[in-house]
Structure formats: structure tokens, C-alpha cells
Specification:
This protein has 2 domains: about 250 residues, 3-Layer(aba) Sandwich (Aspartate Aminotransferase, domain 2), CATH 3.40.640.10; about 120 residues, Aspartate Aminotransferase, domain 1, CATH 3.90.1150.10. By secondary structure, the protein is α/β, with parallel strands linked by helices. About 40% of the residues lie in helices and about 15% in strands. The chain is globular, with a radius of gyration of 21 Å.
């Protein structure tokens, strides 16, 4: 039996994406590749709903995207605010500690989303050069109200950076809300294999970048800016060799997204997430978010008597691979289900079934079919079938 990968990235990929990855490598300066890269950058702008700015796609993970999306817009003495709702908020703090001592943190209680009014009060009362907010934290499944937060920054000099690694491509998002920088990684909701840091830098952030001394070499966007501008004009550009095959695969995946349409894609993610939550709640499991649930993953505690390692091992044997926790103090008390990209009702059924059987095998009192029935009710409510 083939196991399905249901972790929050990397994910399952569509066949045409995998086929593109397997194509022979072509020259990164060829007309063919320049055309592919141009299309990729243009489609990136569409997925980010960006009308202006600089799109980028660089070899690296989401962590590289975090660095690119921050160090270009601060100085050694900059004042920054991290809106922290999980492990990757902690990572922002760690990142900034390399460059400045002036780091403030707004960290709501575990399970709570950031209050946009609190963010506004902090920004209004302090002179911050840059603020980061994680749209969906992969460690907790909490979705912050970026739309409400971002509107406060439209008339400020402060640069707002949105970590969209676990959201963009599966959650509603628009650069027009007021974000100055946003980024993601190829292996999440964009639906391509891991290895690309993808994002958009808006006009305000580009102006700030020109005034700041570089704090990095590879991550210095000034080095890359001309390359991406050239690509958009079908002209060769070079600072480092692009990942030809991954960009080709990403281009195909972005085409899949365009063909489905962003509105339909986001609605599909919403329905899948609702069906997962229904199944999980029916099984009596408590979710980490106190509302503000992500549509790209579900994060829930295990019963007290169930050991995480054995549960995950059994679930994999029953057909679904899930992820353990990331929050250090509760790392082994919860598990995470990724449901982004081309995920469909089939993955819901296999996953909930694997959860039920693994819980039962590990001594949890569950009637098999309870979670499946609840998930099916949601899918039936929307008459949800396979993506067309």
C-alpha cells in the first residue's frame, strides 16, 4: 500500500510537477529557461496578489526566505517587533539577535492568535523599523488576521514582513492589504518540491533596502534585483546559478494554481480543513488553536495515554504520514496534519481512518468510523468531490 504524505510540507505533488522536475536540465542562460523563469516570476506576483514590486525565487528553504525577507530592511541598530505565535516566531527572534539588540516580542498565550489592536498599539507607541508576523505558524496551526494587521502599516514608514510559508497558495492573501514583504517556500501550498525561497518585495521595502548597508552576501537582494528584473525582460542575469529544474517544476505548479483559480483553490482548502476539524473533534481530540484555525494544516493534542512516537508509527503503517510537534515544552504531546496543495477528499478519508485505527491500537477508547462520519458530513454539505 502506498503511504500518503500528510505532513505540513513537503507535500504530495501533482504528476505534471514531478514530470517537469525529471526533464533534462537546460542552460540557465538559454531563451527557453529565461521564458520559464519570466513566467514563474509573473505567476508568483499573481499568487501573492501583488500589483507592483520585485518577485524572487532563490535556491533555499523557507528559512532562507525569512532571512532574505528581513535582513535587507534593517540596520545594526534597528528596532524590530516580532509578532510571535509559535516556533517560527521564536526563529525570527533568533534571526534578529544576530543583527540587533533592539528586538521586542508580542507573544500571545499558546493557542491564541495575535490581537490586531495590540499590534496597532505597540506600533503606535514605538518607532519600529520593521515588524514581522507569521500568517500561519506551522508549529501551532494558528492563523493570524494579517488582513486586519496589515491595514495599519499602509501609512507608516515601518516595514511589515509577512511569513507566508504555511499559508500563501492555500489561504486568502494579498500584498494589497498593506504587507511590504511576503514570502513562502516551494514545498508548501505552492505545490512544488522543496528547495526554493519564493516571495515579493513591495515598493516601500525596496526604497528602505537601498538606504541600508548589506548585512549578508547571498541574501543581499541588491545583488539579485537586477537578475530578476532581467528575467522579467527575457534577458540573462547572473549572481548565482538558479535551480533550473525546480524553477521549471514550480512554474508548472503555479500554472496548476492559475488553472484552478485562487478563489476556488482557497475554498477547497477551507472545506478540507473544516472536514479534518470535524473528524478530529468527533474523536474527542483538542486542537491547539483556540479558534483562528489554519486551512493548510490541523494541529491537535494526543490523548494523555497515547505515546506520540508509537501513534505516528502506527498511523504510517495504516497509510498516512503525520508530523510530530515543534513547540519544545509540548513537543511530544501533539501531532500535525498538513493538508495543502492538491489535497482532496481522498486524503481526508485515508488520514482520519489512520488516526482512528492508530488511536484504538494505542488504547484510546474510540468507535471506529466516528471521525470518518463527521468528516463525510462536511464533505457532503458542500457536495465536495475531486478537484476538476
Amino acid at each position: 500500500m502506498r503511504k500518503i504524505l500528510m505532513i505540513p510540507g513537503p507535500i504530495e505533488y501533482e504528476q505534471n510537477v514531478l514530470s517537469a522536475l525529471a526533464m533534462p536540465t537546460i542552460a540557465h542562460t538559454s531563451k527557453e529557461f529565461l521564458g520559464i523563469f519570466k513566467e514563474t516570476l509573473e505567476k508568483t506576483m499573481k499568487v501573492f496578489d501583488a500589483k507592483e514590486g520585485l518577485p524572487f525565487a532563490l535556491s533555499g528553504s523557507g528559512t532562507l526566505a525569512m532571512e532574505i525577507g528581513t535582513v535587507n530592511f534593517i540596520k545594526r541598530d534597528s528596532n524590530v517587533l516580532v509578532v510571535n505565535t509559535g516556533y517560527f516566531g521564536d526563529r525570527f527572534v533568533d534571526l534578529f539577535s544576530r543583527f540587533t539588540k533592539n528586538v521586542d516580542v508580542y507573544k500571545p498565550p499558546l493557542g491564541d492568535a495575535a490581537d490586531p489592536k495590540v499590534v496597532y498599539e505597540k506600533v503606535s507607541g514605538n518607532k519600529y523599523d520593521l515588524v514581522t508576523v507569521t500568517h500561519v505558524d506551522t508549529s501551532t496551526g494558528i492563523r493570524n488576521n494579517v488582513k486586519e494587521i496589515a491595514k495599519y502599516f499602509k501609512d507608516l514608514d515601518t516595514v511589515l514582513v509577512v511569513d507566508g510559508v504555511c499559508s500563501i497558495g492555500g489561504e486568502e492573501f494579498s500584498m494589497g492589504w498593506g504587507a511590504d514583504v511576503a514570502f513562502t517556500a516551494s514545498q508548501k501550498a505552492l505545490g512544488a518540491p522543496p528547495g526554493l525561497a519564493v516571495g515579493v518585495v513591495g515598493p516601500k521595502a525596496l526604497k528602505v533596502m537601498e538606504k541600508n548597508p548589506p548585512l549578508s552576501f547571498f541574501s543581499d537582494l541588491r545583488k539579485w534585483q537586477g537578475v530578476f528584473k532581467n528575467m522579467l525582460e527575457l534577458k540573462p542575469g547572473y549572481f548565482g546559478t538558479p535551480n533550473v529544474n525546480l524553477i521549471t517544476a514550480l512554474n508548472v505548479s503555479l500554472t496548476n494554481i492559475m488553472n484552478e483559480g485562487m478563489e476556488r483553490r482557497i475554498k477547497r482548502h477551507e472545506i478540507i480543513a473544516e472536514s479534518f476539524r470535524a473528524g478530529i473533534n468527533a474523536l474527542g481530540l483538542k486542537m491547539i488553536p483556540n479558534g483562528s484555525y489554519a486551512n493548510t494544516l490541523s494541529v491537535q493534542y494526543l490523548p494523555d495515554n497515547v505515546k506520540q512516537a508509537q501513534f505516528l508509527q502506527d498511523a504510517e503503517r495504516y497509510g498516512a504520514v503525520f508530523a510530530g510537534g515543534l513547540i519544545p515544552e509540548i513537543r511530544e504531546k501533539y501531532f500535525r496534519i498538513g493538508h495543502m496543495g492538491s489535497v482532496s477528499s481522498s486524503e481526508v478519508m485515508i488520514s482520519i481512518g489512520a488516526i482512528e485505527r492508530s488511536l484504538k491500537k494505542n488504547g484510546y477508547n474510540v468507535k471506529l468510523g466516528t471521525g470518518l462520519a463527521a468528516a463525510q458530513e462536511v464533505l457532503a454539505k458542500y457536495d465536495f468531490g475531486m478537484p476538476q
